[in-house]
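stage 2 :: seqdesign
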């Protein structure tokens, strides 16, 4: 309840100041979450692609869900709300926090430490009931603000793609652990 009141007050201030509930300029973008994540996963559990979560869409956007049930997978864009302002000042990281990996720019990784802490995950849509989507594989914490949903389709598939050598090493390690 407290989170909703704070968000509502923030929205009212933004709406009052800008005369609209969203505003964009060359310097700032103000976004309104379309919903929030509900999950019991904590800590590293959110990395488990088998975790089932719910996305509760705000009632005023329920109509926008019409037809989404025809897709098996969705992209979820969300705000990494648990990141601090200092996390956004980090420009280079070791992938997955491993010092044996090269120091690279955050835009070359999937690190949550970013100037704009926006998360992107492809999830499997399991069920939709009213304004509640049940999904599998969402790596977001409880109460994470959801910014947008987009259906996954064949346009999102690439046959020939290139990845960094360090990524190949990490993927081999992950697969070796999986099949042990």
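stage 2 :: out
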């Amino acid at each position: 309840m407290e989170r909703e009141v704070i968000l509502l007050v923030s929205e009212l201030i933004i709406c009052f100041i800008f005369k609209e509930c969203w505003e964009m300029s060359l310097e700032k973008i103000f976004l309104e979450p379309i919903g929030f994540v509900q999950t019991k996963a904590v800590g590293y559990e959110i990395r488990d692609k088998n975790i089932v979560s719910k996305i509760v869409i705000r009632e005023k956007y329920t109509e926008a869900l019409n037809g989404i049930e025809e897709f098996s997978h969705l992209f979820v864009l969300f705000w990494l709300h648990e990141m601090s302002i200092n996390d956004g000042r980090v420009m280079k990281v070791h992938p997955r926090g491993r010092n044996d990996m090269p120091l690279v720019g955050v835009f070359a990784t999937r690190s949550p430490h970013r100037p704009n802490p926006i998360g992107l995950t492809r999830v499997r849509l399991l069920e939709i009931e009213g304004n509640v989507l049940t999904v599998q594989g969402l790596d977001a914490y409880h109460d994470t603000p959801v910014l947008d949903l987009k259906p996954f389709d064949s346009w999102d598939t690439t046959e020939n793609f290139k990845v960094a050598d360090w990524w190949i090493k990490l993927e081999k390690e992950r697969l070796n652990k999986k099949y042990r």
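stage 3 :: structure notes
- Helices lie at 2-18, 165-178.
- The two ends are 45 Å apart (CA to CA).
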